[in-house]
UniProtKB/TrEMBL annotation:
GO MF annotations, alphabetized: 16S rRNA (guanine(966)-N(2))-methyltransferase activity
Name of protein: 16S rRNA (Guanine(966)-N(2))-methyltransferase RsmD
Enzyme class: transferase
Name of the gene: rsmD
Listed PANTHER family: METHYLTRANSFERASE
Region of interest (Disordered), residue spans: 184-204
Enzyme Commission (EC) number: 2.1.1.171
Annotated InterPro entries: DNA_methylase_N6_adenine_CS, RNA_MeTrfase_RsmD, SAM-dependent_MTases_sf
Biased composition range(s): Acidic residues: 187-204
Length: 204
């Protein structure tokens, strides 16, 4: 049983994906992750992207804690249906449409999203069997959709190597929790400057 830990919807019991085809982030890892994000002060009014969303637990937790727009991206039938259930539940509690579900492959979604879309927080939790080459097809298009001070959180097996970060993205930290490693990345300096230039041009 998974619950929202804190925020406006704190304590809410979430729907779980039927069967055992997904690997939910453990409560221990989720609590440590959101404690860290809260310390960054990045969740309030954030735009959040949850790729390979599973039940959508990380995305709806973000909404509960103050994110204003959350995109859950999931391709598989049962997880996508569960995402919709949890999105509807949290949107109702928050009395606003904050969480939206997209049934699509992560890389396809990123290639189709408008060029000016930027996210402040991105969760990526692909299957552990996902190869480094497959992961690159997600990270590469994502790099161009990060806000200036964005944080990317990638969950991988502790036995997996460090991801190959694409141009425009760089690691700034990592945390190991048993069989799980969280990699934290951010836009590189050059990419951040480019984002600022684009924002200024759009306002001109």
């Amino acid at each position: 049983m998974s619950r929202i830990i804190a925020g406006a919807a704190g304590g809410t019991t979430l729907f779980s994906v039927p069967g055992d085809g997904t690997r939910p982030t453990t409560d221990r890892v989720k609590e440590a992750l959101f404690s860290r994000l809260e310390s960054y002060g990045i969740l309030q009014e954030a735009r959040v992207l949850d790729l390979f969303a599973g039940s959508g637990a990380l995305g709806v937790e973000s909404a509960s804690r103050g994110a204003t727009a959350v995109d859950l991206v999931e391709l598989a039938d049962k997880p996508a249906a569960t995402c919709r259930q949890n999105a509807e539940l949290v949107n109702k509690i928050l009395a606003r449409t904050c969480v939206n579900v997209h049934r699509a492959k992560a890389e396809t979604f990123l290639l189709r999203v408008p060029a000016d879309v930027r996210w402040d927080v991105v969760f990526i939790d692909p299957p552990y069997a996902f190869t480094e080459a497959e992961l690159a097809t997600v990270l590469t298009p994502l790099a161009g959709h990060l806000a200036v001070n964005a944080v990317v959180v990638l969950e991988r097996s502790t036995r997996s190597p460090e991801p190959v970060w694409p141009e425009g993205m760089e690691r700034f930290s990592e945390r190991k929790y048993g069989e799980t490693t969280l990699w934290f990345a951010e836009p590189s300096d050059d990419d951040a400057e480019s984002g600022e230039d684009e924002a200024e041009a759009a306002q001109a």
